[in-house]
Amino acid sequence: MSRTVLLLCLLVSSSNSLAPPRRSFPLNSTERPVQLFPLQNVTSMFLSSDGSTLYVGARDAVLSLDVSGGGGVTQKQRVSWRPTDDKAAECRRKGKDSAVDCPNFVHVLLPLNSTHLYACGSYAFSPQDAFIDRLTFSMVNGPSRRCPYSPFQRSSALTSDGELFTATTTTFKGTMPQISRHFSRDGRPDVSLDNYVSLLDEPVFVSSSADSANGKIYFFFSEFGSEFSFLEKLRIPRVAQVCKDDMGGRRILQKKWTSFAKAPLLCQPPTPPHNVLQDMFTLPPPEGSSSSETLFYGVFTSQWSGPSESAVCVFTLQDIAAVFSGTYRKLDKNSQRWSPASGRHLGQCGLANSSDADLEAVRTGFLTAGSVRAVGNGPVLVSAERRYSRVAAMRARAANGKEFPLLFLVTDSGFLHKVVLSDQEPRIIEEVQLFTGPQPVRSLTLASTKGVLFVGTSDGVVAVPLATCSAHRTCSQCVLSRDPLCGWSQSRRVCTGVSGAEEDVIQNLEDGIEQIKCPEEETAGDIRDVSVSLNQAVRLQCEKPSNLAVLSWTSHERKPLPETLFIRSPDGSLSFLASARTLGAYSCEAEEAGLREVVVSYRVLDTFSPRSIVPQPGDDFEDISTETTVSQDAVSAQDPPSAGDPRRPADTTQADPDVPSKPGPSTSRTENRISMDAPRREKSFHGELVVVSLLLAVCVCVMAAGALALWRQKKAGPPVGSSAHVDDSSKTNDSMEICSLEAGSELKSGE
What we know:
Elements: H1 3-13, E1 23-25, E2 35-38, E3 44-47, E4 53-58, E5 61-66, E6 74-80, H2 85-93, E7 106-111, E8 116-121, E9 128-133, E10 139-143, E11 156-160, E12 163-169, E13 177-182, E14 204-211, E15 216-224, E16 235-243, E17 261-266, E18 276-283, E19 295-301, E20 310-316, H3 317-324, E21 328-331, E22 338-341, H4 356-364, E23 367-368, E24 372-373, E25 381-383, E26 388-397, E27 403-411, E28 415-420, E29 427-433, E30 443-447, E31 452-456, E32 460-465, H5 475-480, E33 486-489, E34 494-497, E35 505-506, E36 528-532, E37 537-540, E38 550-555, E39 566-568, E40 574-577, E41 584-592, E42 595-606, E43 634-636, H6 669-681, H7 685-716, H8 722-750
Parallel strand pairs: 1-29, 17-24, 36-42, 37-43
Antiparallel strand pairs: 2-32, 3-4, 4-5, 5-6, 7-8, 8-9, 9-10, 11-12, 12-13, 14-15, 15-16, 16-17, 18-19, 19-20, 20-25, 21-22, 21-23, 26-27, 27-28, 28-29, 30-31, 31-32, 33-34, 33-35, 37-40, 38-41, 39-40, 41-42
């Protein structure tokens, strides 16, 4: 398949992409709070069996956190596990960065038994083991090759009955993959992969799971597929199987797996191939059910897709076991070609006493002829806008007793998506921002009994409640969320958590909107009073109750609202010019899935100054074009006035950015007339005060000039003859008359 064809398939599949989240909660939202326990580079976590303690492997440390109470996450114990100075210096000599590569990053942290924990860290590119006493939290460590050298290379491990099963790389360059069993019991030797042929080709291990009922261990990874011939290497998602009690062969495959086999995972139709496995979560079967009902939820991306393409596929243990019980293909060591394999014991357990011929067939026939197909032969959801990196899943029991799969998908960009899978289509119930800026999510631990999801990031451990039902404040919003964990309590009149079959709770997860029967309620709350002055721009805010709701504005005075008077902004707000025609009551309504409810109501009132002239009923008011906008400051109605002054005008120190400040070409004569008449309706004391002050200043200047002239005459002495004195006096009197006349005329024009 060519690269061009695959890209075209991606474009076609984008039309079937997942719908946007119904609600979005930003970081530090009061409605959807999360708690961050700060740590450096959390790489591994697991929850104790009683759910009270969260064990965390971080950079240079291992911690135990108390998560038993309702007060959040608190530290119980901590042990430092920092590389020695010699190891750090050796790491730098190998060409590694001292700050990025040479600390100790804990890849593995697991319960080994009831008294000790097992940990494995990169330890400055020299992996080491550690055994930690749970009671004293003291540590004993030593060299190891059970986890990667690099802090960025992924691996997987699990413990079962005190034995450790690992899938990792065992060399400094990370080029030697290995699946092994350590701390083997009952006198069995430790076993690992045979190196006779290349069983794995540059794998990236993401997860592992134990089938205790059938004594098998499964590893999930992606690798290059040698069974396909393309121009570029094709990555294939795989599941590998080993038997828990495998003892190896007697002469052939000594201390090697005789039960190793691998099978492809198909997450394809009807979308393009999602061939890179990012994560796999094991969902145990319901209590009392067979282990064959175990489900595996995997996050897949495409080798050829962009950075935002991802899908989720579901596989069953029954299908995986059926493929491993089928036919196989064998690899010719010389020609590197695959052909049908023949053998009675391929993929089986208990081959320690088998013949050399049978073990030779096992050695080369390790790839299944069939593939493990996803439930429904395709993804349960596809996202063309988001790239998921981690997944956790649980079964949520609704109020009617029916169970629904609930997924928690995390992106490296910092968001958690809560998705419910129903018979209709997958829905993203909500989107919660966990951290700012992209960073890798290394670990995800779901504590369904406690109702918390723990996310390990570079900043620490983020504790996220699985549901915050109180964020849905009305019955309709609670029911429209279609969250199986939340329902509307009719007796308490609140959105509350649902733990099982309950009769008092209103909930709807599958039926149409006509089945929603919420009691009558006042959803708008109190009416907010907004006091404005005439000719001021008014902006009434309305926040969407959900991303899927459509907002509309109504008024008791006029139906519908004319576009010549009102502007509806994309953010849902309503803007208009305050006039006698636009004063009154307004309501913002939200419609979702055919259900309407009032979000907020306003009452826009006129603020009268002491010298205001009240418009008479006979005054002529015409529609003001929405293309023309006043140059006065806008009045924001986002917050109601204070309780002490209900008619207090809103702050008008800043103009509304959504309302233009210049008139458009369609400005009418009526608009100009209103703009010119506005000053006559309400006189300004400021203008009169300025005129009087100017006149007073002119008169003072003239009087000072006259006094200066008289003083000069007296100093020079009287002129010869009395007639000259009379003439000078007359000139002075004439100048004073001119000053008086000019002042009088200026005062008259100011009036």
